[in-house]
Amino acid sequence: MQIAITSTGASLDAPYDPRFGRAAYLIIVDEGTEAWEAYANPAVNASGGAGIQAAQFVADKGAWAVISGDFGPNAYRALEAANLAMFIAPAGEALTVRQLIHLYRGGKLQKPTGPTQRRHYGMGQGAR
Amino acid sequence: MRIVVASGKGGTGKTTIATSLALALTDRPILLRDCDVEAPNAHLVLSPQLTAREEVSQLIPSVVETRCTGCGRCAEVCRFHAIAVLGGRVLVFPELCHSCGSCVNNCPEVALDEQPRVIGVLEAGLVPNGPAFAHGVLNVGEPMAGPLIRRLKGWEFSHPVGGGVSADPVEILDAPPGTSCPVVETLRGCDYALLVSEPTPFGLHDLRLMVEVVRALAIPAAVIINRDMPNNRDLERFCRVSQLPVLMRIPLDRGIGSALARGQSLVAVRPEYGEAFRGVFAHIQQTVHGGVP
After folding, report:
1. What is the ipTM of this complex?
2. Is-contact A98 A7, C-beta < 8 A?
3. Strand partners, A29
4. In degrees rounded to 5, what are phi and psi of residue B92?
5. Residue A126 binned pLDDT confidence (cut-offs 50, 70, 90)
């Protein structure tokens, strides 16, 4: 089983990226072996529909779940259609990807009940 | 001839200039098209009698489920990410679709149709003792102004008096604010750009961007300075250095401001500007038809 985590860098020790569609990196981690691979997010500079493109990417990589800070309306609809589970990182905390995986394993991450952000929230802000 | 009134920064007075220019040119047929389809407001100044109306739709792909194999080719060719194939099913995001048809043309199973979706409306009519008028109104929440502006620019509407707009009127296009796609769509194919600016840092900043746009489109341009005030050095210097003629200066004036806020036109509250607007038009005619820079 693979999970995707949004990250600001290509390492498990990088701070996670709270934006989904416009995250700098998407890290795919195998839950069993803990092997991981970082991919530059192909949607990071998309003029629109970044959440959809990122959702398509993680679905094509075979992930079953995604951990990020927020999911906009389009990303939410796309991930839901792909049957990908969504988990939200605790708000306001600067965590590394590794720390997020730890929280996830401990069952400490919440699932959103709907989109957590308005459209375009991740645009033009850089990593927060 | 098509003259666009644009500015970059919002609120500098595009509609003030566009409506008064249209009202001042009484010796020839004029058609004003308000292309700020996200927030059209020229009708508030001109009070046209709207007699023509047409809905504008956009074509959106729809999936014929029985033929679709979920191959994902449509999602691959869509550069706007308006279509995704997830869990073997095609998902369309209509608000992102630019109606380019790539998905439909590239589907190997011919499993995509196109369905119209209404995004807004065009309206037109005559201003009593004034110009012919047309505008577009984009539905609230629709992000795609471009297709509506394109249709508005090409719309040949008819009205009861005379049965149609007089042959070859001078067209004045009131542009949306900013310098992005809707503004470029408004400017495309036009003959002249009147750039309305104001002596503020934002006015100048956005004018610089606007000038880059009109230069890229090779459209001759000049500046009208609105809410002008003494010691306005930066804006004047920029215009001089960029070889942009300043065709008119309208001072910061409370009397003008409060009249405009009541919906009056500039030439109604200060008729002496009529002559100045006719002078602006003479300059534009010279530039466009006389080949003078």
Report:
1. 0.73
2. no
3. A3, A36
4. -105, 135
5. very low
pTM, entire model? 0.78
Find the chain B residues whose C-beta atoms sit closer than 8 A to any C-beta of A: 75, 80-82, 84-87, 89, 91, 93, 96
**How close does chain B come to A53, measured CA to CA in Å?**
6
Return the H-helix or E-strand segment holding B235.
helix B233-241
CA nearest to B101, candidates B128, B140, B61: B61
Dig out the tokens for B215 from the structure.
Answer: 């230069």
Q: Which domain holds residue A45?
A: 2-105
Which residues from A are below 8 Å from B82, CB to CB?
49, 52
Q: Kindly determine whether residue B81 and residue A49, on different chains, have CB atoms separated by under 8 Å.
A: yes
CA torsion sign, A112 to A117 to A118 to A120? negative
Interface test mutation site (partner A, options B63, B76, B91, max chain A beta carbons within 10 A): B91
- Gap from B35 CA to chain A (nearest CA, Å): 23
Say if A125 falls within a structural domain: no
- Number of structural domains found in chain A: 1
Cα B94 from chain centre = 23
Q: What is the CATH number of the domain that holds A27?
A: 3.30.420.130
Contact partners, residue B22, CB within 8 Å, separation at least 6: B30, B32, B46, B127, B130, B131, B172
Closest-approach residue (CA) in chain B for A79: B86
User: Nearest 5°: CA angle at B30, between B29 and B34?
Assistant: 160
Judge: B81–A82 Cβ closer than 8 Å, yes or no: no
| Cα dihedral sign, B255-B260-B262-B267 | positive
In angstroms, what separates the C-alpha of B239 from chain A's closest C-alpha? 30
Amino acid identity for residue B48 in this structure: P
Task: Give the contacts of B144 (CB within 8 A, at least 6 positions apart).
Answer: B58, B95, B97, B98, B119, B138
Domains identified in chain B and CATH numbers: 2-56+120-289 (3.40.50.300), 58-118 (3.30.70.20)
Least confident of A112-116, B119-123, B222-226: A112-116
Per the CB < 8 Å rule, is A59 touching B96?
no
Q: Given pLDDT bands bounded at 50, 70 and 90, which one contains residue B42?
A: very high
pLDDT at A124: 57
